[in-house]
Amino acid sequence: MAAPSGRWRRALGGGPTAVAVLLFAAMYAVYAARTETATTVFGITNLLNDGIVLAIASAGLTLVVLAGEFDLSGVAVIAVCNCVVATISTFGDFGWLVALLAVLAIGGAAGLLNGLLVAGLGLQSLAATIGTMIAAEGVALLILSAPGGTVADVIADSLTGDIRSVVPVAAVILAGLCLAWMVLKRTRFGIALYAAGTDAAAARLSGIDVPRTKLKAFVLAGLCYGAAGYMLSAQTGTGDPRASDALLLFMYASVAIGGTSLMGGRGGAFGSIAGAGILTVMQKMLFALGVAEFYTNVFNGVIMIVALVIGNASAAVAQRMRRRAA
Amino acid sequence: MSDSVPSVVGPSAGSVLDLRAIGKRYGATVALQDVSLTLLPGEICGLLGENGAGKSTLVKALSGVVTPDTGEMYVGGAPYRPRNVLDARAFGVATAFQELSLVPTLSVAVNLFLPQPGINRLHMIARRRVEQEAKAILGAHGIRDIPPATLVGDLSLGMRQRVEIVRALWRQPRILLLDEPTAALADRDWLFAQVAAAVGWGASVLYISHKLDEVRRLCGRCVILRNGRKVRDAAVAAMSDDDIFSSMAGRSVVETFVAVPPAIRPGPPMLRATGLRGPGVDDVSFSLAPGEILGVAGLEGQGQARLFQSLIGLHPLQSGRIEMRGKPAALRSPRAARRHGVVLVPEERKTEGIFKDLTTVANISLPVIARAARLRLISRRAERRLVEPITEAVDLSPRTLKLPIAALSGGNQQKAVLARALASGARCLLLFDPTRGVDVGAKQSIYRMIQGFAAAGGAVLFYSTELDELVHLCDRCLVIYRNRIAGEVPREALSQEHILALASGAGPSGQGAAMELAG
C-alpha cells in the first residue's frame, strides 16, 4: 500500500512544476501550428537559443530563492561577464577558454561576496544584493563604456549551432543543467537547501549549517550567472553593458511561474527552466498569432498570473491527496 | 544526592555531565545565573521550573545551540564546549526539543538522519535505503503508524513529537535531554517505555517537564530553576507537591485545582450539534448548556482537532445541524462563528494564536478595535481601557500590555490569546489544549478563568491532553475515538482510568488497553 501511494504523492507533489510544463506544451503547440519552421531543427535551435540564457540564470537564482534569500545581482553579473568575453575572448587561440574560466571566476566571486554579506554578516539579502548589483553594473561600464568589442567566432559558432545538424548545442547544455539539478537536489546539500529555506531554526537544531548552505547557494548561483553571461555573448557576438537589463524581472517571473515559493523551501530548478521556456515560447507564439509587439508584455503578465493561480490550485490538490494518503 | 544546597565543588567523581556555574544573558535579561548541575550514569534527573525560569536556555546550552557566557561544562570529565548540535552529538548528547526541530518539508526518514542522511556513489540521498533504515528505527521504538516516507508537515503534532523523540534516541546517546516531551503527546506510556530503554543502555536523562506526576514517576532527583537560578536540587521523594510548586513559583501554591460547584443553567443549550459528519468527523452529536464545562478527551490524532476546527467552519461539514440557544446557526467560517459568540482557542499558539510582531494589547484588542476608534483613528487610551478589565479576568499583568507579545512567556501569551477570545464577546469557548507548554502559575490562572467564564453563564468545550484537568474541571467528558464519540463520562464517574479505557476504544470496562492503540 505504501509504494503506490508514495508514487502518486511524488507525481502530484510537483504540482506547480507540472502546470508550468503543461502550459509550455500548450503554447508550443499553438506556436508550432502557426509556424512551419517551428518543428524543424532550425526552429527548435532558435527557440532554445532564445531561452537558454534566461533558463540558466533562473536555475541559478532558484537555488538562492530555495534557501529563503533573494539575489538581484544576477543581471549585473551577466553584464560584466558579457563585457569581459567581448574584451578578451579574441586574444589568441585559447581566448575562448580564458574567457570561460574568467566568467566562472567572476560569477563565483560575485556569489561568494553575496554569500559572505548575507550568510556571514547577516545582512538582508534583498538589500545586500541591490548593492552588489549596482556595483557590478558600474564594473560592466568600466570594462565597456558603450556597446562594442567582439566575441570570438569559435564561441558563437560552437554554442549556437547544432551537432551534426541534428542536436542543438543548447539542448545538450539544457540537458546537462537538468541532470545537474536532479543530482544536486538529492544530495545532502540539496536537502540542506530545502531545510534552510523552510525553517532555518529547525534546520539548525537538526544539525544543518545554515549559513554555509546559503553561502554555497549564492556561489552556485553566481557560477550559473557566469555561464549565462557566456551564452549571452555567444548569441549576441558582441559586448553590451546593458544587454541583460530586461532579464532581472524575467528571472524572477520564471522562478515564480515554475512554482518555487519566493519564501523559500518549496519548488525547484525544473520549474524555473519550464518557466523560462514559457516566457520564451510566448514571444514566438504571439508573433506567430500576429499579435503586435507592444501587447507582448500584457500577455507576459497575464500568463504569469494564470500560471501562479493554476499552480497554487494544483499544489493545494497535491497536498490534500498527500494528507489523505498519510 | 539529596543535598538541597547548591554546591560549587569540583567535577563529581563518576558524573557523566557536570555543569559548573553556568551563566547566560540576553541583553539585560539574565536567562541563567550560576547554575551548577551533575548527572550520574543511568540517572533520570528532572528539571522543573516555570516558563522563563531558564530551562530551555539550559537545554540549548547543553545542545550547542547557545554558548554560555560564563561557567564550564564537562562530559565524562572532558571539557565540553559544543558550538552546534553536531558537536553535542559527537559527545553523545542528544536533545528532543520542545519547539520540535523537524523540518516540515522533508520526510520523516530524512529528518531522522539529518544532517547526514545516507548517500549513494553519486552523493545522492539513497532514498529507499534511508526509508528502510528509518522504518527499522521507528519499529524498534514501537512506532508502526508513521510511514517513513511521509512529510513531517503532514503529521499530527503528537506524531511529530514522537519522531522528534526517536531522533534523539536512536543513536543511543550517553546523555539524553527531553524538553517537555509530553507537551503534545497523549500516549505517555510510550514515552516512559522509551526512557526506560535509554536507561537500560546506560544513558543519563535530563527530563524537563511541567508535569509533576511524570517527574515523580520517572525521576529520582530533581533540580528546580527559578528566574535563571537553581533553587532546589534534591531527591523527588523528599519533597511534597506543595514544596515543589512553591519552589518553582517562589510562593506557596495551596492547591492546583479549586473545586467549584457546577454552574450549569437550565433552558435551551448554548450549542447543540446533531449528527455532524465531514472529513475526520463521524456522526458527532452533543449538547452544551450555558454554564457548562464539557470536556473532550482522546488519544492523539482521533479527530478531536478536526472536530474543533469544523465547529467554527474551518473545514466544511457534509451534514449535521448546529443550533445555538435552540435556533439553527450556520457556523460556516470563523467570522460567522464569532458572530454567534463561538470562539476557538487553537492548538498551535505560535502560528495560529498570536500575531508575534504586535504588542500584547494589540493582540487582545484586535477583534474589537473598532470600539477604541474615534473618527476611525485608534485611541491608545480607549484601547487600554477596553482591554484592562479583561486582562484582570485572565490574570495577565498590566505591565505586559505594551510589550511585543513575542517577548512574553508561553503562559502569558496563552493568557493574552484567551483575553482576546473574551474581548470578542465569546459566549461559547472552544479551548483546544489551552495549557500545553504553560507553567503551573499560568495554568491555575487559566483554570480560574475557565471556571469564572462558566459561572457567568458561558459554555466551554474543553479538550486537553492532561487527563487530570478534565477530571477536575469538567462537568462531563466526551471521549473521542476514531473520529466518533466513543462514550460520555458523567461527573460522578469522572476518573482518569475511565477516560483512558474509553479513549483506547476498549469500552468502559476494559482498562489498560491503551497500549494497543498505536495501530
UniProtKB/TrEMBL annotation, chain A:
Pfam families attached to this UniProt entry: BPD_transp_2
Protein location: Cell membrane
Keyword Transmembrane: yes
CC per GO annotation: plasma membrane
Protein name: Sugar ABC transporter permease
Major localization class: membrane
Membrane topology: Multi-pass membrane protein
Residue ranges crossing the lipid bilayer per the database entry: 12-31, 51-68, 75-92, 98-119, 126-146, 166-184, 215-234, 246-263, 270-292, 298-318
InterPro entries named among the record's database cross-references: ABC_transp_permease (IPR001851)
UniProt keyword list: Cell membrane, Membrane, Transmembrane, Transmembrane helix
Domain of life, source organism: Bacteria
Gene Ontology MF term list: transmembrane transporter activity
Keyword Cell membrane belongs to the record: yes
Classification lineage: Bacteria, Pseudomonadati, Pseudomonadota, Alphaproteobacteria, Acetobacterales
Automatic annotation (TrEMBL), chain B:
Residue intervals of the ABC transporter domain: 17-252, 264-507
Superkingdom of origin: Bacteria
Listed name of the protein: ABC transporter domain-containing protein
CDD domains: ABC_Carb_Monos_I (cd03216), ABC_Carb_Monos_II (cd03215)
GO MF, one annotated term: ATP hydrolysis activity
Keywords (A to Z) from UniProt: ATP-binding, Nucleotide-binding, Repeat, Sugar transport, Transport
